[in-house]
Design goal:
266 residues; alpha/beta; Protocatechuate 4,5-dioxygenase, Chain B; 10 helices; 39% helix
């Protein structure tokens, strides 16, 4: 195996503050502002947006506030997101020992990555897909603030069957492990059109309607469908924590991007 490297923070200073003190304060404020429903249950997985924090940080704060309610334990976080910039055949796991952010290094669960690569042909390293990609990176500082001790399995989805990934992951996830799916919703519609499309997608997700989710416009459809499959097998139930779009956070309602936080709990 080739030598592993630390994956550098590619979008610090663009999608989120590069200054660690400012970054810590911003995330703590997003989480503090979140309100969670009563009786949420034990959170097993969340879906969170991955835009710049000024656009989606408020919504993301709800997902990570839900994780912050969990007891402190060392956990493995399976972090799933779509490959936006480099085409991937299968699921890219990278070749890293850690993901670096201004808050420090989040260690990768290297043993898990090796086992997955050896077990299934649809897993690949493809570090070139991870290097320019923002969708996993922007979630890591939130994890560092909300969880403390954890190891990552970074998973970038390309052309792959969500059900095949779900069948593999459902046997790998231990009781204290978590799944975090990184996805935005519809892109560049008017405010009203985006809300209609996003609500339709979220209703399908909450109803377990795979066909309806597949027809939606979320960039992370494949990892979302993987989570839906795992949740059905394990009996986890989804609950919408927050929805809004960039028109709510930026004021420009002509072309917006949708964001949601969803928790799956048992």
């Amino acid at each position: 195996m080739s030598e592993r490297s630390v994956r550098q923070a590619t979008v610090a200073g663009q999608f989120y503050p590069a200054d660690p003190d400012q970054l810590q304060r911003d995330i703590e404020e997003y989480i503090r502002r979140a309100s969670l429903p009563e009786g949420l249950g034990r959170v097993r997985a969340v879906i969170a947006p991955h835009a710049g924090y000024v656009f989606s940080g408020v919504t993301a704060g709800h997902a990570f506030a839900a994780l912050m309610q969990l007891p402190e334990k060392k956990r493995t976080v399976f972090l799933l997101g779509p490959a936006h910039r480099v085409p991937v055949k299968g699921v890219a796991l990278g070749n890293y020992s850690a993901y670096r952010t201004p808050l420090g290094d989040a260690p990768v669960a290297v043993d898990h990555v090796i086992e997955m690569l050896e077990a299934e042909p649809f897993y690949t390293r493809a570090p070139g897909a991870h290097e320019p990609e923002h969708c996993l990176e922007v979630e890591v500082p939130f994890l560092q603030v909300s969880l403390g001790s954890f190891e990552l399995v970074p998973m970038l989805f390309g052309q792959v069957s969500p059900s095949k990934v779900a069948v593999d992951l459902v046997e790998r996830i231990d009781d204290d492990d978590l799944i975090v799916v990184s996805s935005d919703l519809s892109h560049f519609h008017s405010y009203d059109a985006a809300e209609q499309r996003d609500r339709s997608f979220l209703n399908a997700l909450l109803d377990g309607d795979e066909r309806g989710v597949r027809q939606g416009e979320a960039c992370g459809r494949a990892p979302v469908m993987t989570l839906m499959d795992i949740a059905e097998r394990k009996g986890w139930q989804p609950q919408l924590l927050d929805y809004r779009n960039s028109g709510d956070t930026s004021g420009n309602k002509s072309q917006v991007v949708g964001y949601a936080s969803v928790a799956y709990a048992s």
